[in-house]
Amino acid sequence: MKNLKEMKIDELVKLYKIEENEEMKSLVLVQILKNMETYICSYLSKEYKFLLSSEYKEDEMQLVLTLSENQVSNAVNWLMELIRQGKVLNYKFTSATLDMQYGGMIDGE
User: Measuring CA to CA, how many Å separate 18 from each of 28, 35, 55, 81?
Assistant: First the structure.
């Protein structure tokens, strides 16, 4: 079997469906999400010309995208299309914290 990091998403999905070991299924799922993060960030940057930064929080299975103020409307339209297609199940929009806006300067980092 290939290393999980070398596998494409369709190969990982097939493996996930047939894998019986729960620990291995979890590892496969995490790799699927990491691959999706890379794809999503690349796609957003190329197609929609928005995305200041991204962060994948593995323990929460959450992708955090940071946008500028003028990028938000395109991002919302893109997200609504993904929801209509059933590709996004849960989302949240929030404004950036002061700490995020000033790059950690508030708490002395």
Answer: 11, 19, 29, 30
pLDDT one-digit tens code per residue, 16-30: 889 899 999 989 988
The verdict on pTM exceeding 0.70 is no
DSSP letters of the chain? ---GGGS-HHHHHHHHHH---HHHHHHHHHHHHHHHHHHHHHHIIIII---SEEEEEGGGTEEEEE--GGGHHHHHHHHHHHHHTT--------PPPHHHHTTTTTTT-
Q: Judge contact between 83 and 70, C-beta under 8 A.
A: no
Closest to 33 (Cα-Cα) out of 12, 48, 2: 12
Integer CA distances (angstroms), 24 to 31, 36, 41, 58, 108, in order? 11, 18, 26, 16, 40
Partners of 56 in the β-ladder: 63
Distance, in Å, from the CA atom of 57 to the CA atom of 59, rounded to the nearest integer, reads 6
